[in-house]
Amino acid sequence: MSEADVISATQIIKKLPTIIGHIPHILKGMRITNNTDKKKMVGLGLCFEEAVKKNPQGIAILYQDRSIQYKALNQWSNQIAHFLSAKGIKKGDCVAVLIENRPELLATVYACAKIGAVSAMLNTSQKGRVLTHSVNLVNPKLIIAGEECISNYDDVRHNTHIEDVNHLYLADLDTLKISYEAPRGWQNLSQEISTHSKVNPLNTKNIFRDDPCFYLYTSGTTGLPKAVVFNHGRFMKIYGAFGITAVRLKKNDRMYVPLPFYHATALGGCLSSVIAGNATLILTRKFSVTNFWKDIKAYGATSFGYVGELCRYLVEQPMRENERDHKVRIIVGNGLRPSIWKKFKNRFNIKKVMEFYGSSEGNIGFTNLLNFDQTVGMCPLPYAIVKYDKETDSPLKNEKGQLVKVPKGEVGLLIGCITDENPFHGYTDAAKTRSTILENVFEKGDKWFNSGDIMRNMGYRHAQFIDRTGDTFRWKGENVSTTEVEMLLEEMKEIREAIVYGVEIPNTEGRAGMASIGISVAENTLDFKGLLNKLQENMPDYAIPVFLSINKQVELTQTFKHLKAPLKEQGFDLQRNQNSVYVRLPKSDGYVKLTESIQEKIERGEYRY
Asked: What are the percentages of helix, strand and coil residues in the chain, rounded to 5?
């Protein structure tokens, strides 16, 4: 156990002077975070309107060559909001949002928040059966889609339940300035809103903490994606504890966000920080390792949002002259691995890492308020880190049947106490919600949220993220549901059984997908290229297994569940696998048989994933 694994009292005391000058912000943020008044007006729409009042002429969004002031963005959102109300969208109704990172996305989200509609933030990488499921799961009254996503949606449109007249289209251009025609079967949103009022809707003052704001999708452990209820009270907690208390951006700050806004890191952590500081959000369509530092310099960014994958990609690039020539003073995100933390900070001259932790569905969150290295920070809410058995994928119990907290420096499962003040709102699927709650944990009648994440207790209410448990793993900055991938594999006639799990590739962030498959044809006749094509039709690229193992016998538990632990241990190491292993190499259109030579190249980093 290294010194980085724990925090001492001396370290805490040394950090205190750095926050004394920010006590007013901290107190204000804590008041907002700890509000339990269910009748108090709150919400994303109200927070955005407050930023508009404080900085009406300030730049709200920079995107490519577009610059949109707070006042203009607010008026645009108001027109969309009034149009939606005229279409019959009421508080609590769901609006499906399928737009990549561009100003139209945020204008739509703000509009929905203002009238109490729930934005279902569809993953723009989804297609086929998974996209159909995600849409129908939340029963949207209407969909607003960008031109860039129309093709995938039109492929499954006949399987959704949205009325034809409620399909709204936004061209992939500056829809505020350039006129366009919508394709057949779609309504032109820009044209539809043109006659509507630019004044703030009154509905914004009728939003309360328990009202849902977004549906965010998380990879389920029992099948297809689950929709998480992210309510306005949850946004206020992030806005108060993170945006106001911890990050503390100012009007002249500019935050560059290359992360998808269908994820909580961008939509919660980054957006709340920008609004809280009345600052500028620099939008980019997708992360580009080549253009990252060029964009940071060109836009004058003083901050950027990240996930661990992004940081790893950057630190693996050859050194460039301009990579320290920037104005960045704070970065905001999660998943920065302890193994590259200091290297990343030192190489790129990053002074402050505002790492945070909080799952889309969880009821607890951590913030690195004191700027310690290699930690997700501290949590003011009731939580515990308990002993966990990796072999059985379940928490350990003592002789009384209770869970056991780990000591300082040790690793265990993170759980969050569920109370009236700290509720768990769960999923749209009630059964999934129930399965995530642990009862009688430390005393009779108590209830705790099972985060599914393994953390290290660093002491003084600080923690360090270690790994995910169970049937979900993280790859390419995305959560992959093993059961979802297994279901799609087993739909193929050549595959009679599939077991999916994540395996580690040296010096690579997250876990690559690997599938142990039983096949109904001879191995030498299996159409690997056709198999990959079928997977590409139905799932995003990050979810497609990198490795395939042709299994001959599957080890089962006494309850006939697949025993994944041995498979995870074997990984793709040919010395530990009795079965043939195939690999999808980067930019390949199929799978090739793994050889010792290829394995060595993968492990040396000659093939980059």
From this structure: 35, 25, 40
